[in-house]
Specification:
It is elongated and about 45 Å long. The protein has four helices and no strands. The protein has one domain (about 5-100). The protein is an all-alpha fold and about 110 residues long. The longest helix has 27 residues, at about 75-100.
């Protein structure tokens, strides 16, 4: 296991830190915050900058959940379902970042 300081590793650690920050914002703050939307811009930039780093389906699902939560027009069970799916997206991003940093197979 060899962790070199490369741009890829720096941006991957930054993505992990941003993901943890968004999880904290989503659990403590309002859903209408613009911060998570900036996070999703960063996720898309990471996805475009490092091909095969993140699965495009997961990125799409996370982006849709973030957009639905930002422009909150739902409630009840649907809101809870979207929040749970977005949390699974965050878990995927963290797990995939650890895999990429440590060189574990896909």
């Amino acid at each position: 296991m060899d962790l070199n300081v490369t741009w890829f590793n720096i941006f991957t650690v930054g993505l992990m830190a941003a993901t943890i920050w968004v999880i904290a914002v989503r659990t403590r703050g309002r859903l209408e915050s613009n911060g998570p939307l900036c996070y999703y811009v960063g996720v898309i930039a990471y996805y475009q900058g490092f091909p095969r780093g993140l699965d495009p389906y997961w990125v799409f699902v996370g982006l849709m959940c973030g957009t639905l939560l930002r422009f909150e027009f739902m409630g009840g069970v649907i809101l809870t379902l979207v929040r749970v799916v977005e949390f699974f997206f965050f878990c995927y991003v963290l797990w995939r970042a650890v895999q990429l940093l440590l060189g574990w197979p896909w």
